[in-house]
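Case study 2.
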Amino acid sequence: MQKLIRIQKEDNVAVALIDLAKGDRLQFEGEELVILTHTKAKHKVTLVDLLPDDTIYMYGVLVGKAVTPINRGGLLTTDNVKHQVNPVKEKTASVSWTPPSVDKWKDRTFMGYHRPDGQVGTANVWLFFPLVFCENRNIEVLKDIFEKELSIGKVSQQQQLLRNLISGNTSQVNVENENNSTRSLENIEVKFITHQGGCGGIRQDSETLAKLLAGYVKNPNVAGATVLSLGCQNLQVDIFKKALSNIDDKLEKPVLIYEQQQLGTVDHMLNTIIKESFEAIKKANEIERKPAPISKLKMGLECGGSDGFSGISANPALGYASDILAALGGSPILSEFPELCGVEQELVNRCVHDADGQRFMQLMKDYEKSAENVGSGFDMNPSPGNIKDGLITDAMKSAGAAKKGGTSPVEAVLDYAEYVTKPGLNLLCTPGNDVESTTGLVGSGANIVLFTTGLGTPTGNPIAPVLKVSSNTILAERMPDIIDIDTGAVIRGEKSIPEMGEEIMEYVIKVASGEVISKADQLGQDDFIPWKRGVSL
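Prediction:
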């Protein structure tokens, strides 16, 4: 097995594919390389002697500078390397792209839920949500009622364990056999989300939340929605209705809105909601899956718990799948702007429209400035887990993370809560926070999300399947309950990036068609956290 890899010919560092011991002598690219320090897999060693202020390149881009001398074969650490990126200029190259061959995909379809506006869902969900956190309790009450009576929730192993302990029965019970309940409505999912917004913060946050929630209603995975309002909050019903109208002034989905301060008692309000929502849910249950072209997929591209292999296996493989989708007329969506720091020039050059390149840079500058205003910055983005597994600068992390977006032209640049309307690669401004970013991707129309990870993460979403793609097989074997796709074969040299990318695309079609349930959905991981940019007032 190969022990080191230089990702691009311009790179002056290499990634260890296995643990290397101090004193190991390797034949690398026709020359002997002596490992000077014990180097764990995923970490980097320098291929040249570096002096203080010498630049470090990975993925063909600047990712840092040396702050102390590092001899050839030495280990890169947070002590001897600091974050550094090149300044971004105006567009320096014209857009050119050679798409992958998609002949085998052109006539392929997935089985989806067709909506009146032409979008196609990978799921059929009736969604309950509040406009303000004051209604969270009522949402939770409704969730308990609907899930019990519609037999949506099954008894988990942990619930059964506690029941056994309470009853004094310590024998192991097969939970699968005890959960033979059937769903009352087979063709619709009923989901519930809560949040801490809608009032108490700056008005702009409430307006952004309105746009985000309108995006969830617009998302093709949603058949309709029940919306709860208190009445006196910042996020007024009229603001939400305006956001709905702005996103689709001809929305042909049922949206039931209830305001507690107008309806009176809790019992009266809940009884009214249950009666009217159930009738609408029964009607939505009549919608069935039908064939749809792959171009109807809007695929969110996300990463979290990344490691030193993410940019070598999972991310570029997902990038290849993204290119397939873009070539077919679908919409891959690349998010997490703090994790694009250092690759801005490449992305600006890939923008089809100059105005989008300018907007991308302005969003990046505004975002970083807001971080600096509170004493932080993009250079502080890598988490302790990232650093432990080889991602020691933000630029190094970003250069690998950007590989999820493949090589296709950028067709549009969007701010948080703006909806995707153009086919091709879209850039969406979100934070690097896993759940906030995934929440934003789905609010912008993603009907499926591909989420790469090297360390493991349980993130999911209430209305869109979130598929976890592991960068290494060790993770896939250690956490099989959360990993859907393992790209470790790329690290072992058993599969190429295109081969792995095509496997990912095949799996996406199966999940989009309802043939396979994502691990996140199996575990009921319905995470929803809106990005709050302002302060609380």
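The mean pLDDT is 92.
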